[in-house]
Amino acid sequence: MATPYLGYTAPDYSTDYASHYNETIQEVAAYVADALKNSPFPAGSLPPFSRAAYLQQPGYTSLETGYTLEPDGSAHVAVLTQMPRVTPEMWDWWFGWHGCRDNRYKLWHPKAHLSARWKDGEDEVAYIGRQSIIEEYIGDELSTASIQFKAPTEFGFSYEAVKNTSEAVYICARIGHPSLPLDYGYLVHQVRAVESGSEMRSRFWMGGQYIQVGKDGIFADLMSGLVRKMKTISEQFARDLLTHCAEEMTHLAAFLPEIYQQNNPTFDKINVEGRVINRSDSDFDAVLLGTLFNKIDPGRRPDRIVEPKTVQDIIATVKYAKAHGKKVTVCSGGHSWSANHLRDNSVLILMKGFNQYEINAPEMTATAGPGVGGSVLMRELYKHNLFFPAGHCKGVCIGGYLLQGGYGWNGRKTGMACESVTGLDIVTADGDYVHASATENPDLFWAARGSGGGFFGVVVCFHLKLFTLPKYRAIIVHDFYIKHLEDVYHWAYEVGPSIPKAVEFQMLMSNRMLNILGPGIEAVAPIFADTKAEYEEAMAFMANSPVKKKAVIATPAFNPGIDALYQTVMTHYPENHYWGVDNMWTHAPIDALMPYLKEIARTLPPPPSHFLWLNWHPNPQIPDMAYSNEDKIYLALYANWKNPEDTTKYGDWAATMMAKMAHLSTGIQLADEGLHKRTSPFLSEKNLKKLQSIRAERDPAGLFHEWHSKPDLK
Length: 714
Ligand SMILES: Cc1cc2nc3c(=O)[nH]c(=O)nc-3n(C[C@H](O)[C@H](O)[C@H](O)COP(=O)(O)OP(=O)(O)OC[C@H]3O[C@@H](n4cnc5c(N)ncnc54)[C@H](O)[C@@H]3O)c2cc1C
What we know:
Layout: H1 30-38, E1 66-69, E2 75-84, H2 88-97, H3 102-108, E3 113-118, E4 131-138, E5 141-150, H4 159-162, E6 168-176, E7 182-194, E8 197-206, E9 212-213, H5 218-230, H6 235-253, H7 256-263, E10 275-278, H8 284-290, E11 304-307, H9 311-323, E12 327-331, E13 346-350, E14 357-360, E15 365-368, H10 374-383, E16 386-387, H11 398-404, H12 411-414, E17 421-428, E18 433-437, H13 442-448, E19 457-465, E20 467-468, E21 472-481, H14 485-495, E22 506-510, E23 520-529, H15 532-543, E24 553-554, H16 562-570, E25 578-586, H17 590-603, E26 610-615, E27 633-641, H18 647-650, H19 653-660, H20 685-698
Parallel strand pairs: 11-13, 12-13
Antiparallel strand pairs: 1-2, 2-8, 3-4, 4-5, 5-6, 6-7, 7-8, 7-9, 10-11, 14-15, 15-19, 16-20, 17-18, 17-19, 21-23, 21-24, 22-23, 22-26, 25-27, 26-27
Flavin-adenine dinucleotide is lined by residues 293, 330-337, 340-341, 351, 370, 391-393, 396-397, 399-401, 403-404, 406-407, 452-453, 455, 458-459, 573, 671.
């Protein structure tokens, strides 16, 4: 056998993994240096080996980095190492792969590792049940050891904890002398997935009670007792072991993803029938930016885009992301104003192709994929004399719309659109395909109705309850020049609470009312009534409006038909524009709001930018679901512009204006969220807490991105 040596010589550089060899070992992180300064911690601060399974509990213990010197002469050592981009499976592979060649072992710590070989002489990629004989410097001391790898369950870890290697891996070993029947320590490296990749929690129990001479038996026990008395672990050794561990784990983590990829070429393949679009593909940006309704490019980029064809494709993508330490984002219609689905270090799943629907007219139910446009569904339902509270604009898909709640046509009467979701088919963060309803997976059902862009699953299909198409449908419009601002908003504020539920009364302020007139306010009353009496009652407040006489145009009630209705609304939401949007709920007195309404009128960007006042006055009782934040009046600012250079001019107007009014606000809708610019409550505190606890159960490793920001939980 060749004499072991430190570092690489010429032949070592001939391997294809030598490119990862880097002799520069970084200084230990500041928290490790602090831990060394503060050690030894009081004896007993780190649990003994007999309680090693405590590592499988979530969270952290009070001591994650440091060492203790125990009365029996043993030392307990703990080291926490953060490893961005690294997955637990990579470590699992590393322990099986490196042990048969010195020059593989040296990659890990070039300044301290000399040699490694498997006792069985084989070079298969496996470690559990095998003995690795290593030679390394721990501090200045050259040590030779036998690392006897064990199954984690032998060390007391539960099958539940170890079964999913994409969530956590436990590398467990007995440490002993390479040739004598003498063992003197244990080690456990728990590698668990965290948001940025993974973290390793290393534990060593050395010397003292952990010394065992020979096998079981009276003689072995006697000898062990004798050696234990003699063998007290020095403090220097404990310090050196801690430092060595922190150095080698950090060093290897820096290139582990690359060396893993090099040795596992199929690792990066997503096995799907649909298309996978990589950053290197020429149309990557075109596909990505093509998903955006709001044409502002936020600069964030997923690593890969998947257009799944089947549910199996979605499952494979979720599993791929998990195994690669990537997050998942989902896009259906791409109408998130904040481009919620564009995130770094992620795999983006495009659900636009899941746009099939099926209407069961006799049962008044439907199933629809998330890529179905609300207006598409609505047109189809009209043919069956049926109705669903779909959103007001073309292009918005039910995927994002229903998850955030859904403020749709006739929504004040039908309730939020998500109240008419009776079930969902979902691919979970575990890659399971499940149905969620009031009785099956009720936690997911609860979460999917209101969590919006913070949902932690991929919705594949919605099951919907339908309504009979209201028989009496009409719209009444009163247009006012901006000089009547005070009168118009005072009236709207005062009449608001008494406006019947069959009317979704709203007012649009813009600098080009009706696309032809100058700055003004358009008061619009869409009516969806089931009976003549309800219809007449719904119209009355517009007919009797005290400000009607000031209107430049006051239409009678007329029914433009659903297509014209959508077309009219779309004149305010043109495609291929840049948008800055923000919103708030309020019940503030009109006198408190008035100065801000005037400021909005003064500063409103050019048309078709607009300001929406929606009379909501919600139902006092809503079902128990994540959706939980609403108030009497909804105010939203929609700035938009065609020239990208105007982004600096108008991009922050909406968020800045809403920030000024924040003291009058009771939170925001997720429909028009601008959480990338401004945080505000979007669920009740209680429901956000509950949602986050469901997330912790369903997506403990944070596979799915949350909203851009969220309020701090008390
Ligand atoms: C022009 C316009 C008009 C609008 N009108 C209304 C309206 O009348 N009423 C109303 O309530 N809202 C309205 N909105 C807001 C709209 O409902 C939300 O932006 C909604 O999220 C858009 O859904 P989407 O599927 O088109 O968007 P996406 O951008 O695809 O989805 C938004 C987010 O929802 C999540 N998501 C989407 N699909 C899935 C899925 N299948 N599984 C898991 N998560 C998913 C993702 O986190 C995604 O980032 C409007 C928006 C625009 C741009």
